[in-house]
Each structure stands twice: as C-alpha cells, then as structure tokens.
Amino acid sequence: MTDYSKFSALELGGMIKKGEATSPEICEYFLNRKDVFNSFISKNGGAVSQAEIIQKRIEKGELTSPLAGVPVAVKDNICTDGINTTCASKMLESFVPPYDATAVKRLKEAGLIILGKTNMDEFAMGSTGETSYYGETLNPFDINRASGGSSGGSAAAVAGGLAPFALGSDTGGSVRMPAAYCGITGLKPTYGAVSRYGLIAYASSFDTIGTLCKNAEDTAALFNIISGKDEKDSTSLKCSKFEIDKNCSLKDKKIGVLPETDINAVCVFSELGAVCEKVDFKLLKYAVPAYYIIACAQASSNLARYDGVRYGHRSKNASSLGELFVNSRTEGFGSEVKKRIMLGNFVLSEGYYDEYYLKALKVKNLLFEEISGLLEKYDFILSPVTVGTAPKLGESLENPLKMYNSDIYNVLANLTGFPAVAVNTGKDENGLPKGVQLIGKALGEKELTEAAYVFERENKNGI
Amino acid sequence: MFLHLEQLARLNLSESERRKILPETEELIEYFNTLSELDTDGTEPLSHTFGLSNVMRSDEVLPSLPAEKITQNAETENGMFTVPISVKNSETEAEDD
Question: Among positive and negative, which fits the CA dihedral B54, B60, B65, B70?
Fold first, then answer.
C-alpha cells in the first residue's frame, strides 16, 4: 500500500491527474490512519463515496484544479453542511450546520473532499490546543507536549501525516502558533481575503480562515481556492488568483526584523539576498492587552447567541426563560470561554467602556499606523511566531497570563489585518520544531508565499 | 463586581469555578490597565483597518435557507422554537424572566 502521507497535497493532486493514484484510494488511506494525536473530532464517513464521484468528474475533464480529488481536513469551527460542527464545545456537541461555509463550498466546487473536522481549543479560545471539550491535541514531535492552538488539530493532522493539508482559523495566532509548534507552514491571510461566512464567530474584526500545509506551494494553491469576495461577507475583499513564480528571488527585498527573532533565520534571509534591518517596535508590549480587550469584548457579544433556544446545548433543568439561558450557557461552556465572556462584558460595561474598549481601539489605531509605516519602508516584517517551542501539556494552563503573552508577535497581524505566514526554521535541542513569521502587505499573499517558498527551499535545517 | 459580570454574561458559576476564574480575571484586568500608559488623546478608535464602509447589496428578495433546515437543531412545535412559558396571564402560572 502506498504511503500517501509522504506526499504534499499538490503531489497527490498530480498523481490523481496522471492516473498514478485515485481520489478514493487516497481518501480511504487517510480515513484509516490511526489518530494517535487526538487531532480529529469527527471523520467524514461519506468521503470515499464522494471521492468516487469526484474521480469520475476528473477523468471526464470536468475538474481541472491541481488539487481536485485531494482530501482536506477542516477545523471544527467552520460549518460543513450535514456534518457535525462542534467548536470543540459541549455547547455545540450535537450541532449540524444547515449550510456550508463559503470556504468549504469553494473547496467542494474545486473537487476537494472533506476528510474530517479537526480538534481545536473551545470556540477558538486558546493558544495550546488544551481547552477542547474533546481533550487536548498532542504534538506529533512529542506527545507529552501541546500541539499549539487554537487550530491544533489541523496542525497535528498535517504534521503527523493524517491529512495532506487543512483549514484552520486565526484570530490571535491560531494558525501560525500550531504551525510553528508542529513544524509546518501556516498562513493567516489578509483580513477579508477569505470569507468568514460559515466561520463560527469568536472576534469578528480579527477572525480569519487560514491554511495549514506542508509547504508554501500547497499554501498558495489552497489559498487560491478559498479566497475572494463573497456577497455573504460584507468585509470580504477581491483577491487575484496567482501562482508561485518558482524563479522568484528575495534579492534586495527589504526585511524589518523584530526583537528576539531567530538569528539563524535572519542569516538565511540575508544569504538569499534580502536586506535585513533590526527594527525597534516601541508599542509591542501593548499589543497583547489591546488584542485581548477587543477579542473578549467581541466574543462576549458573539457568544450571546448561545441561549439553548435555536441551536446548541439546551439545559433540561430550567423552569423559566431566564433559567434556560443561564443554565444552558453555564452547562455548555468551558471555563476559558466563560472567563473571556465575562472579561468582554466587563470592558463593554457602563463606566468601563471608554477606559478599556474604546482605549483598546485607539491603541489598535496606533499599532496600525506603526505597522503600516514599517510595511511602507520594508517588503516584509520578520518576527518570531512565539518565543520558545511547544510547551509541556498542562504547563500553560497554570499560568494564563504567560500563555496570553506568548501571542505577543502573533496578534500584530490580527490587530492590523495584514497577512502573515509562519515557516519552519528547524528544530531545537529537544527535537521540537521552531518557526518564524513574515508579515506582508495587505493582499500580498503572492509575495508572502513566494518568500516562504524561497526560504523553505534554501533552509538547510528545515524538517 | 464578579457576580454582576456573571449576570451580564448570563452565567452561574460554581464555587470552584469562581475560585479559579476570579483571581485570573483580576490579574488580566490589571494587565489591561497597562494601556493607560499610552497617550491616545487625538487618536481615533479604529474598527476596520482597510477602509470598507456601508457595503450594500441591491434590495431584492433572494432565496434563503428552508425553515426545516434552520430549525433542525432546535426543539420546535409547528415550526416554531419552543421555550418555557415566559408571559403571565390569567390562564398560566408562568414565571417572569
């Protein structure tokens, strides 16, 4: 039996086109892979029969996408019509969406097959993959360590050979952090580049569907399928389709380097011809508090919809409408979600709104001005994804503030809307993957994925 | 204050949850206070970073999801969502919310 986990998504698509493999064979292979990392919440039992239909359409020439026939894992906060979508929460344990997210619809139209729904931090609130109602996701490089979050299941599935690639979502680093911890490529697109219709909301001004892939080429190919304006999402933007220019170069590209960036990665970029300059970012320490104030505020509003009436967990212990709301929510949500909802209510409440929420929006403006200024001077900003590698399981939950602070470099891209890609740079002395991120200009996904492509090709210490 | 936040959030935490979450919440609020170090006088609050505003569509009726699909995840009666009685009248013993 062919080990299809060794191939990238584009390689698998190529094999299908050439008749060297079939979509049903590949889907069956991945469906049968043992999930030793707890990376999936559910698998799509209809995947093989759907693949048979897709295979016939490919053979007739009806599906021409280079990824047609390839199975893809989808984070379990992205709606899939008829397939349970839980957000890794008891609140949505039995929820079956009545529609596909636009990103999923576009995958299906291109001929991809949904392999299953991946594990995550509950309602995308977490950085380590440990707050899921379905248990923590394990890191394929060390199962005593966290996969990262909140798209931990997607990252572990791709890194662990259980899926060729996956969709995730990134509100405060939730694609890039697990990508770095698991040694793969994670793209957070420009805010608006991928429709949020069908992405179950956490913080609406930050939420972005992103990609978790083995390399930059797969990243670009997957992004091209899911991106573009959608009438169902009024914040979505027009995007041009592109192909990575394999002759692209980083020669004379200007890169602003933030503090604590891995010096080896800086050296690789310099050897590739880029001009790297250290940048002093004065407002860096204010990014995390500004992010969490805004994110928690928006989460408290978005999660107000969970009242046990139209969908979601409904308490059996309620004799009044008020009790139905309170008990359904209390029983349905985990403690991290409850904490963030209450913090959000606090920063929006009378007497505190100006001091916290409005203040945070002003700080967001200052951060946007600073990052925009840097991106006028530089082609990219280079920074750590996070300081350190995957923590041991349980370690982060003991110190929430430290966990929140680990997002210090990630949240810059979410606060400002610019795209960012995490690329693997090698392993640390414990054999754990480490990564760096590049932040690019708005709608600059072509340049960003090309930079990642060149770096990955040249990085001698890559996985 | 904490109990007020629970009420706003429509939550009723257990004592053990309160013992865990209350100190974490206090620590985080203290951390949020670092923003007061920044002078933001004259700075406008920024909601959307890429300048979109008033994105409209033409006012025409378009197909939506069928009601059976929308209600498939709920307890319903005659196509309507059901809730505990919440309005008192002379014929019911409903409790006020």
Answer: positive
Distance in angstroms (rounded) separating the CA atoms of residues A445 and A461: 24
pLDDT band at A399 (very low <50, low <70, confident <90, very high): confident
Please tell me the distance from the alpha carbon of residue A231 to that of residue A196, in angstroms, as a whole number: 11
The Cα A44–Cα A86 span in angstroms is 14
Chain B closest CA to A6's CA: distance in Å? Answer: 40
- Does the beta-carbon distance from A361 to B34 stay under 8 Å? no
Gap from A358 CA to chain B (nearest CA, Å):
6
Give me the pLDDT at residue A241, please. Answer: 96
Cβ-proximal residues to A456 (8 Å cutoff; 6+ apart), any chain:
A185, A215, A216, A423, A424, A462
Q: Residue holding tokens 């007497």?
A: A351
Q: Which residues of A touch B21 (CB under 8 A)?
A: 335, 338-339, 342
User: Rounded CA gap, A138 and A160, in Å?
Assistant: 10
In this structure, are residues B31 and A350 in contact, taking their beta carbons and an 8 Å threshold?
no
Cβ <8 Å between B10 and A343: no
Q: Would you call B65 an interface residue with chain A, using a CB distance cutoff of 8 Å? A: yes
Mean pLDDT confidence for A324-348: 97
**Separation CA A148–CA A171 (nearest Å):** 14
Answer for the pair A333, A342: CB distance below 8 angstroms, yes or no.
Answer: no
ipTM value, please give it: 0.91
CA A423, A424, A427: angle at the middle one, nearest 5?
160
Residue type, A11: E
Q: What string of pLDDT tens digits covers the 97 residues of chain B?
A: 889 999 999 999 999 999 999 999 999 999 999 999 999 999 999 998 888 888 998 999 999 999 999 999 999 999 999 999 888 776 555 544 4
Residue A115 structure tokens: 């392999």
Which residues 67-86 of B have a C-beta within 8 angstroms of A? 69-75, 81, 83-84, 86
Confirm if A214 and A184 have CB atoms less than 8 A apart: yes
How close A410 gets to chain B, by Cα (Å)? 17
Q: Which residue of A has its CA nearest to B43?
A: A362
Tokens coding A295: 């994110």
Phi, psi of A75 (to 5 degrees): -60, 145
Q: Which amino acid is at A277?
A: E
